[in-house]
Amino acid sequence: MALADVLSSSVTKPDKLRALGIVALNGMFDEMDAVGVLRQAASEILPGDLAIVSSFGADSAVLLHIVAQVDPSLPVYFLETGKHFRETLDYVETLKRHLGLRNVIALRPDAGDVARFDPNGELWETDPDSCCHIRKTEPLDAAVAQYGGWVTGRKRFQTKERGVLPHFELTSDDRIKVNPLAYFSDADVNQYKRDHGLPEHPLFESGYKSIGCAPCTTTVAEGEDPRAGRWRGLNKKECGIHFDFNGEIAKPVLGAEHNLFKDGGFIADPFHAWEEGSDPAKARYTHVPVKTFLANREAFLDNPHPLGLLVVPGDKVEDVVEDLGRFASIAISFPAFTDGRGYSSARLLGERYGFEGEVRAIGDVLTDQIPLMRRCGINAFVVTHQPTRKALLDGALAEVAIFYQPVGKTEVPVGTRPYLRRAR
């Protein structure tokens, strides 16, 4: 069977041959330009079975210009969430006229879901994951179910999670996701728009570098990541349609408690506790105990989903030092106020092993511990104790200014002499 036949066959269950075909496809077309990638996908791999998905945001004109070159009649789906800027809706019409796109389709959320879960239109304030699920993921899921593959405008430079993005992916529902702009840099995008005289999104010059729904999009300062204005202040980087590398659709976080304190506020926590018996190959957004990780190391390393690590008293972080880069978050357990072994684990992670990701404290996390935890490199806290929550929100934590045991390179211990004691 030819490679194109393997990739274009419609299947409803995981197919190892299809997965192998994706690997081969990326090898064959890794150096191909964006127009070539899309033309190959539309004419050879998935002829008549490919949809385009566009946000009509700040960079969307580039992908849509390429679509117009390949086939302006390709179906282009736009998620009309009901929360867009007026300027974005106007931009949809501008690009349709400018590029000659003949098949732009607006996808709207189910009216029943909106009435049930978001009757006042304020769900984005309390549970943005669920808001995205209702207004984006569910409508798109139904639409792409008609196709063998779909095209995105994602690029490697946009976020750390997208840093290994290939031209072709096999999603968890066994569809092909095509990313023609995967290797474009921010400079490439802007140069392409200039070279082809593409109209800018009306909000781009006002500092909106990545544009989604109006309530969840802010301007971006000079030098910030282009997507820094999306869900600013929340532990959220994706709307759900691109939730992880495999493109698996995100599930809603309905009624989630906001117990994770990070970056100055309490937010919904995407991680959950590890459950015994879970499949290491399919686990996602869970803190895996050190012993469980070591016992199933290869399966966890092959797992493409975001994972965390759970460190409890008695665990040796040096046992997993080679794999620290695998984890999006490391949770350090403080089972009791009197057990301080977690402080040492946190310092080892940051000072000796250079871990720069999220290090969170869980367990008995109380007001007077948090300044000490922060000194040791812990930057997130799971807090249910109400007085501690209030102290965090009010900025009323006790300061620690005198150090007998310094941390890092900047603290000076009390009693330090300006000279070394000489041996007799």
TrEMBL record:
[4Fe-4S] cluster binds at residues 131-132, 213, 216. InterPro entries: PAPS/APS_Rdtase, PAPS_reduct_dom, Rossmann-like_a/b/a_fold, UCP030820. GO terms for molecular function: 4 iron, 4 sulfur cluster binding; adenylyl-sulfate reductase (thioredoxin) activity; metal ion binding; phosphoadenylyl-sulfate reductase (thioredoxin) activity. The active site is at residue 239. SUPFAM superfamilies: Adenine nucleotide alpha hydrolases-like. Residues 50-218 form the Phosphoadenosine phosphosulphate reductase domain. Its main location: cytoplasm. Its cofactor is [4Fe-4S] cluster. Pathway: Sulfur metabolism; hydrogen sulfide biosynthesis; sulfite from sulfate. Belongs to the PAPS reductase family. CysH subfamily. Catalyzes the formation of sulfite from adenosine 5'-phosphosulfate (APS) using thioredoxin as an electron donor. This is Adenosine 5'-phosphosulfate reductase. It comes from Paradevosia shaoguanensis. The lineage of its organism: Bacteria, Pseudomonadati, Pseudomonadota, Alphaproteobacteria, Hyphomicrobiales.
